[in-house]
């Protein structure tokens, strides 16, 4: 098999993640292509799309949320994602077992002995009136029936494991702060989620996930697919698709799978400076993140740091203070790199402030 080094994988990742050049796509098409955006921090997806799309307007994403075209919900890895209505309806059942097990793994002692079907039915009954509720409100309503569990474990099991729910706007709208309130997905979207598919050994929903993942993240190993989705590698789906995929090896000898006609740019393709939001899936979508971030900085990707890509790799962190974008390098920049980082930071400052500021400063030297 052809060996793809880290630079070749980097350029392929940037191309799939719409980071080699801003794409002329709608916000909805971008969210679809990217298989959703990680969104536990409600404002971060706006920066993620600004860095990827030409002419992106924050109102376009807010309108998708209020128009019920995209939803905020727990999905991959039991983290909050912004995904299209079509995808959540198609994918939610396939994630059910993983979501439950991850909550139970966290609160095994508190939730021991609880009949999950009984608890889910009770939670659905409470939410059947379509009144928005916080996780705490839902849990307190049921706490008398399951007093030993405690409100927090009950709430997380219901919201992040047992019940297909969505976080409601105004949470997730541009420049809006609001707590998380929930309704059943079926009520919010006017349609039940797709039922689990009959198990004939091929896992059709899993196959769709594999193909969509490779389109947005490939080439990738099955361990990367597992790290992104939280699912157990989707072995039946991968086996059913293998004859339709192409294979490579990385420098560690791992097998990488990919779509035959997906872009794999020349490793020397120039990569523009890009500012990524916290928890961006361009980094978190892999088990081996060496294609985009050095091992010594890997902890940044799970700590919620916002990062800057220079020559396609994580090379700085960034934050905002009084409208100014402040960049902290992780290595020494060349003069050309300083200029490119500053210019892109100024553009980001203007985006975040509706043109009231265009300040960007590199605040420390490594």
How would you portray this structure in words?
- The protein has 366 residues and is an alpha+beta fold.
- It has helices at residues 6-16, 27-33, 44-50, 58-66, 85-106, 108-111, 116-127, 135-142, 151-162, 185-189, 204-217, 222-229, 235-241, 281-284, 335-352; strands at 3-4, 37-38, 70-74, 80-84, 165-167, 182-184, 246-250, 255-258, 274-276, 306-310, 313-321, 324-329, 360-362.
- The strands form 4 sheets. The chain has a 5-stranded mixed β-sheet with strand order 9-10-11-12-13, with helices on one face. It has a 3-stranded mixed β-sheet with strand order 1-7-8.
- A hairpin with a 4-residue loop joins strand 7 and strand 8 (255-258).
Radius of gyration: 21 Å
| Strand order of the biggest β-sheet | 9-10-11-12-13
Q: SSE order, as H and E?
A: EHHEHHEEHHHHHEEHHHHEEEHEEEHE
| Helix coverage percent | 40-55%
Shape: globular
Mean of residue pLDDT values: 95
